[in-house]
Amino acid sequence: MTERPDSDILIVGGGLAGLPLALACAQGGLTVTVVDALDPATATDAKFDGRVSAIAFASCRMFDRLGVTQHLKGQMQPINDIMVSDGRVREGASPFFLHFDHKEIGDEPLGNLIENRHIRIALQKTVEAEPRIRLIAPQSVKHVDYGSQVTATLANGDKVTARLCFAADGRSSPTREAAGIKTIGWDYGQTGIVCTVEHELPHEGVAQEYFLPGGPFAILPMVGNRSSLVWTEKTADARAILALDDAAFAEEMQARFGDYLGACTPVGPRWSYPLTLQLARDYVRPRLALVGDAAHGIHPIAGQGLNLGLRDVAAAAEVIVDAARLGLDIGSLDVLERYQRWRRFDNVALSLLMDGLNRLFSNDIGPVRLARDLGLGIVQQIGPARRFFMRHAGGVVGDLPRLLKGEAV
């Protein structure tokens, strides 16, 4: 007879998908063990990750329900407006643009910009207060056996058993690879440069998505008179820009940033990230499911990557908690395939949409530029289309899990 497992659920990876999943499952009455290879102190260090994330308002409702928001006070910058435009470096923007104003669809902002490290700090604090969650870190998983239950052997020789394993260990997911789940995708030949800029004038919560021939140049408002740049260039050009001294880097940045926020100064380190598309062929195996970047990695052109992962989390938790309440085997393929059916179409569709937008805007072909500029102008004049795009970006289109409605899992 199989011994009772240590926990109902094992989550490999304690990052921006793994910890919300642990909280959601625990609040649904399940016990959870999280194993993460990274030291929690390293993950929250200011030098580890300079990115910010645009948390859609549906995802914000989920953070509220999970108890995470209470630890983010003072770190959330509301997104009131989004301006989308097209142009060339040192020539300025096209007269055609697209303006998303949150007031068109309600009182809630379109989302909140939060530094990734502050999200991690808030998640860790919330997890520490949840008695149903055990966090083992820093520690890596050496091997996982899937039988009548999950048995994971850690690098230190300890074993962890569970009824179900979630892989939340990133794009290069060793858990996914060891299970033989293949991926498809491609390299964009682009690199994202990330840095923080201090500016003279207030941003008023307006995010800018400025499309240039090398790729999108996003100006994302942060708390205070600061913005985060997500600056996409062809990889060779990005390497040259990153190699510039501070003065030359600031000059190149200003040529794209413009002067609408007054004098601007890059502060702190610069980070860079290769941009790729990656989709797992399958999300589930018996007693195994993929969530977040382990299942999909998309172009950051609209800042939807983390929100896709959080939608995975909300759907997976709902499926598993509902199954447990019915007395079903939460690790069975029948149960897990419901999660896969729920999430795969949305993930693939949005991934390919972001791919198409990047290809459409990251070029300088005359007729294509004219067509996309006219497209921006036309959508700007069509209120229902504009509001649909805002609701989609806010994460409230489609079959929503309970957590994304602000309800208990």
What distance separates the N and C termini?
A: 32 Å
Element-by-element helix/strand order: EHEHEHEEEEHEEEEHEEEEHHEEEEHHHH
The average pLDDT value, as a whole number, equals: 91
- Derived structural class: alpha+beta
Task: Give a quick precis of the structure.
This protein has a domain at 7-79 and 109-185 and 277-362 and 399-405: FAD/NAD(P)-binding domain (3-Layer(bba) Sandwich). The chain is built from eleven helices and 19 strands.
How is the secondary structure organized here?
Layout: E1 7-12, H1 18-27, E2 32-35, H2 40-43, E3 52-56, H3 57-66, E4 77-79, E5 81-88, E6 92-101, E7 111-115, H4 116-128, E8 133-136, E9 141-146, E10 150-154, E11 159-167, H5 174-178, E12 183-199, E13 206-212, E14 215-222, E15 226-234, H6 235-242, H7 246-257, E16 264-280, E17 284-285, E18 288-290, E19 296-297, H8 305-325, H9 333-361, H10 366-381, H11 383-393
Parallel strand pairs: 1-2, 1-11, 2-8, 5-13, 11-18
Antiparallel strand pairs: 3-7, 4-7, 5-6, 9-10, 10-11, 12-15, 12-16, 13-14, 14-15, 16-19, 17-18
